[in-house]
Specification:
It is a single chain. This protein is α/β, with parallel strands linked by helices and 342 residues long. Helix content is 27%, strand content 22%. The longest helix is centred in the middle third of the chain and has 18 residues. The radius of gyration is 22 Å and the shape is globular. The site of iron/sulfur cluster (SF4) has 14 residues, from loops.
C-alpha cells in the first residue's frame, strides 16, 4: 500500500436548516449532520467509516462527492482543493470519485438496459460511443463476474447480488481513484455479501483502487478495512488501524459498539457494554462531549469541554477526556473499560 494521501477532509461541516413554521417565525434551528469532521485516506487503502444510522456517515459521503454543498471545511482530493473546483475542472476531478449505493435495485434505472446503465458514464463524459462503448461495457461486465451477453437485459432480470455487480461495473467505468461504498452490502444476504466483498478486494488489487467503506456493520468493516473511523452524532470519535481498533478500542462508544458484535463461539462470551438512553437529537446535541448523556464514565469536564483528539499509540487517535494527559490513562491496563475480543 502506498502512503500518499488521496483524500484529506478537514473540519468539514454541514448543518441542514429546519423548515420555519411560517415566514414570520424565528429560524427553527438546524440538524448538525456533519460537525467538524477531519480524516485522511491513503491511496490504495480501504478506510472504514462506522456508526449507527443517522450519525452523519451518508451525508459525509455526499459532501465528498459534492452531491451536497458543505457549509465550511476543506476537502483535498488527489492534490486538488475539491470544494473550490467548478465547471469543467470539477467534472474532470469528479470522474475520479464514484459511488456504490446500498440498494442495488433502486440505484439502477429499471427502464434502461444494463448496457445503457453501464454505458451512461461513457456518454456523459464523452469517453466512448458506438461499438467502442459496447466493447468497454462488455469488458466491465466480465470484470465483475457477469457475462457480456447480458448487455440487453433489464435490472429486474437479475438477483440482488448481480445488480450490485452491475452497480460496481458502472462505478468502474470511468477508471476512478476512489470508490465510496455506502452500505454497499447491507441489503444483501450474508453469502452474497462475501462474494461482493471478495470482488471489491480483487478489483482493488488489480486497479489500486481506494475505498471509503461506509457501514453500520462492524464485522463487515473489520473484514475489509485497513483503517477505521468511528462516528457518533456528526463527529468522528476514534481513528485507528483495523487490528488496533478491534484489539484495543479506546473510546467508550467504540467499546460499546464492539461489545455488541455476536461471537461465533459461545465459550468466548464477552461482557456487553450498554449505553443508557437514546441517541440525542442532532438538532440539539449535548455540549462538550456528545456522548456525555450516555457515557458510563462521564466526568464534569465532559459536559463542558469538547474533547480534542489525542494520540494513544501510533496511528490510533481518540477524542475522549479519559485520555487527556491530566488523566494519564494512556496505558490500557489502567483503563476503566477493557474489552476482551475473541
Ligand atoms: Fe465519556 Fe467523557 Fe470520554 Fe465523552 S469525554 S466518552 S463523556 S469519558
Amino acid at each position: 500500500m502506498k502512503n500518499d494521501v488521496l483524500l484529506e477532509v478537514k473540519h468539514l461541516k454541514k448543518h441542514f436548516p429546519l423548515k420555519k413554521k411560517s415566514i414570520f417565525s424565528k429560524p427553527a434551528g438546524s440538524v448538525k449532520a456533519v460537525d467538524d469532521v477531519s480524516f485522511s485516506v491513503f491511496e490504495g487503502e480501504t478506510f472504514g467509516l462506522v456508526g449507527e444510522s443517522g450519525c452523519g456517515k451518508s451525508t459525509l459521503s455526499r459532501l465528498i462527492t459534492r452531491l451536497v454543498k458543505a457549509d465550511s471545511g476543506e476537502i483535498n482530493f488527489d492534490g486538488q482543493d475539491f470544494l473550490r473546483l467548478s465547471g469543467s475542472d470539477l467534472r474532470k476531478e469528479r470522474k475520479k470519485i464514484q459511488m456504490v449505493f446500498q440498494k442495488p435495485y433502486e440505484s439502477l434505472n429499471p427502464r434502461m438496459t444494463v448496457g445503457e446503465i453501464i454505458g451512461a458514464p461513457f456518454e456523459i463524459h464523452h469517453v466512448a460511443k458506438g461499438a467502442e462503448k459496447e466493447k468497454q461495457v462488455k469488458n466491465l461486465l466480465e470484470m465483475v463476474g457477469l457475462s457480456g451477453q447480458y448487455v440487453n437485459r433489464y435490472p429486474h432480470e437479475f438477483s440482488g447480488g448481480q445488480r450490485q455487480r452491475i452497480g460496481i461495473a458502472r462505478a468502474l467505468a470511468l477508471n476512478p481513484k476512489l470508490i465510496i461504498c455506502d452500505e454497499a452490502v447491507s441489503a444483501l444476504d450474508v453469502s452474497i455479501q462475501s462474494q461482493i466483498l471478495n470482488l471489491l478486494n480483487d478489483l482493488q488489487k488489480e486497479f489500486n483502487l481506494t475505498y471509503l467503506f461506509i457501514s453500520h456493520d462492524l464485522s463487515v468493516v473489520k473484514h475489509v478495512s485497513n483503517r477505521i473511523a468511528v462516528m457518533y452524532l456528526g463527529r468522528i470519535v476514534e481513528i485507528s488501524d483495523a487490528s488496533g481498533l478491534y484489539a484495543s478500542p479506546k473510546h467508550p462508544y467504540t467499546q460499546a459498539l464492539l461489545s455488541a458484535i455476536p461471537v461465533p463461539n459461545p465459550d468466548h462470551k464477552k461482557e456487553q457494554i450498554i449505553l443508557e438512553g437514546d441517541v440525542p437529537s442532532p438538532v440539539n446535541p449535548p455540549t462538550g462531549c456528545r456522548l456525555c448523556t450516555r457515557c458510563p464514565y462521564v466526568m464534569p469536564i465532559c459536559k463542558e469541554i469538547e474533547p480534542e483528539f489525542m494520540n494513544v499509540s501510533e496511528g490510533h487517535t481518540v477524542a475522549c477526556h479519559l485520555y487527556s494527559s491530566s488523566n494519564q490513562l494512556l496505558n490500557n491496563d489502567t483503563l476503566p473499560l477493557s474489552i476482551k475480543t475473541s
